[in-house]
Amino acid sequence: MRDSLDRLIEALVALPGIGRKTAQRIALHLLRHDDNPGRELVEAVTSAREKLHPCPRCYSLTEDDLCAVCGDGGRNQSIVCVVEHTGDVLTLEQSARYRGCYHVLGGVLSPIDGVGPKDLRIDELLGRIGAGGIREVIVATNPTTEGEATAVYLANRLHGTGVLVTRIARGLPVGSDLELADGETISRAFEGRKEF
User: Fold this and answer.
1) Long-range pairs for 104-108: beta carbons < 8 A, 24 or more residues apart
2) CA 23 – CA 8 distance, rounded (Å)
3) What pTM did the predictor assign?
4) Which pLDDT score, from 0 to 100, does residue 2 have?
5) Is the same domain home to 17 and 96?
6) Which range of residues forms the domain containing residue 32?
7) Which of 35, 77, 100, 192 is the most exposed place for a label (fewest CB within 10 A)?
8) Which residues is 80 bridged to in the sheet?
């Protein structure tokens, strides 16, 4: 039994933001209840992995042909907010302050980790711009060293494309993530965006 419990704890520790003590509490909670929340968790993860795929336009996750944002005719299709990950889209959508579309890069430039421009969806963004209809790109990468480097790289690549390139304002603390920001902070960051 100890081997199975240790394996479960180690699997939980591998998740972001979960330390060993939290992993142990979660593991014991999953194992002690008769209604078996562990089975429900496994089924939910399995279902999500089977059904979700990247949206072919913005690369956020969806079960449909297009994600809910790209398929929403009421959204401003001429403004694209560039983010690092799908989690950033979820955070911005929870704020209910932004009514444009998104483009998920899939990470940030990080030479130390071997992540270069070809590892991100930058060419896909340029393709969307080249197809026409986009007048503004809002760069909303996190205010980390890698996020800032990615923002500068994007601004340089988008220079001369005819689109306005803006950066969300500094309502977000340096070194923080979009996921941790509240709706008011996100709203002020969009309102205070500046041209790159």
Assistant:
1) 104/54, 104/58, 104/59, 104/60, 105/59, 105/141, 105/150, 106/59, 108/84, 108/141, 108/142, 108/144, 108/146, 108/147, 108/149, 108/150
2) 8
3) 0.77
4) 61
5) no
6) 2-51
7) 35
8) 101, 137
